[in-house]
Amino acid sequence: MSADALLLDVRGASKAFGSTTVLAGVDLGVHRGEFVSLLGPSGCGKTTLLRIVAGLLGADGGTVRLDGADITGVPTHKRGVGVVFQSYALFPHLSVADNVAFGLRAQRRPADGIKATVARFLDLVHLGALADRPVRGLSGGQQQRVAVARALAVAPKLLLLDEPFSALDRKLRETMQIDLRHILREVGITTVLVTHDQEEALVMSDRIAVMSKGAIEQLDTPEGIYTRPRTPFALGFVGHSIRIAGKAGQTTDGVLTVDTALGPLRAKGSYLPGSPVLLAVRPERVVVGAPPPDVPSNAVTAALTDIVFQGSKVHLHFAAADVTLLVETNRIPPGLSPGATASLSWGLADTMLFPGETA
User: Fold this and answer.
1) What is the DSSP code (8-state) at residue 79?
2) Are 272 and 315 in contact (CB under 8 A)?
3) In this predicted model, what pLDDT tens digit does every residue of 41-68 receive, in sequence order?
4) φ, ψ dihedrals at 80, nearest 5°
5) End-to-end C-alpha distance for the chain, whole angstroms
6) pLDDT at residue 335 is higher than 90
7) 190-211 pLDDT, tens digit each
């Protein structure tokens, strides 16, 4: 899609702190109304990129355009950007309603308009009945809702969320993720979220930017990131996977034979014979038992080392030739217990192929 169709267009954003490069010329385009997550481990540059977009941090190089305008040097309060911080940054001495009204009053909106806007957004986050309550008396989830209402009330063009769920317990966090997704879609606002939680990114996003070492490894839909990771890092950071290293052999009809510690395995693709490669498969695509005779598949024999019950799913841990193989299923196969040997199989179409690490 052309740059003209982007609400947020970041080009060549770079930032270093001393001799440490935090962002290495990052490009990021976000479409109008889209929800994009910046996902990655601590130190990958995702928060630095968010702060540059917000104007809270100056970039060493690159440009930031919002709705067609270059805002690279524009002060934060003039960018038309709303931010919800990890700490929420609410005013503890003010009521819920006064917190939401704070930005509106700073914009010198008419009093009757402020009252109506505050009521609208408190109702939107289901806090209308608590308008007069001090924010210090609210739960963490309620404070998060107030912070969202305050950010949305000033009608920003772009909403930035800096790990807003990290202080919540898991059950409340999952509930808030769904609620916030509904709220933002109802408002129709373009949103960028910073998170290190892969499940959060998968649940909330239209697209995910997987970041590592100051660069975006892959920008794709949640399904694309999970089922078609483009790099070993994206594969490993989002979801579980079985990873098997090997050496490329011959390619026949677009299918590569790979020599591994588990024996010869196959994958669609082609590499020079002898090249190091990495095979991978998602654990839910692996079955215990021989593959169907009419389906191109891979199969290995491994010993069961552990069974981990996780409620709606069961993780079966296998090992063979120093390779760990994780199988995810919804039940324990009859007669299978730790120490038993079993055949594991998965489809050729489910086998992913990546370049391996060179010595």
Assistant:
1) S
2) no
3) 999 999 999 999 999 999 999 999 999 9
4) 75, 35
5) 39
6) no
7) 999 999 999 999 999 999 999 9
What amino acid is encoded at 296 in this protein? P
The pLDDT tens digits for 301-334 are 999 999 999 888 999 999 999 999 999 999 888 8
Confidence of residue 88 (pLDDT cuts 50, 70, 90): confident
Tokens of 26: 């990052």
Per-residue DSSP letter, 103:
H
Alpha-carbon span 146 to 96, nearest angstrom: 7
Residue whose C-alpha is closest to residue 64's, from 125, 19, 109, 3: 3
* CB contact set of 245 (below 8 Å; sequence gap of 6+): 260, 261, 276, 277, 278, 279, 356, 357
Which single residue is written with the structure tokens 């709606």? 312
Q: How many CA atoms lie within 13 A of 239 on its CB side?
A: 24
Q: DSSP string covering 8-56, please?
A: EEEEEEEEEETTEEEEEEEEEEEETT-EEEEE--TTSSHHHHHHHHHTS
* Predicted structure pTM score: 0.90
Distances (CA, A) of 203 to 208, 357, 358: 10, 32, 35
d(CA 5, CA 82): 21
Instruction: Answer whether residue 100 shows pLDDT above 60.
Output: yes
* Crossing angle of the two packed helices 96-106 and 111-124, in degrees rounded to 10: 130
Q: Report all structural domains of the chain as residue ranges with CATH numbers, in order of start.
A: 3-237 (3.40.50.300), 242-355 (2.40.50.100)
Helices (H), the chain: 46-54, 96-106, 111-124, 140-153, 170-187, 198-204, 222-227, 232-237
Please say whether the beta carbons of 128 and 161 come within 8 A.
Answer: no
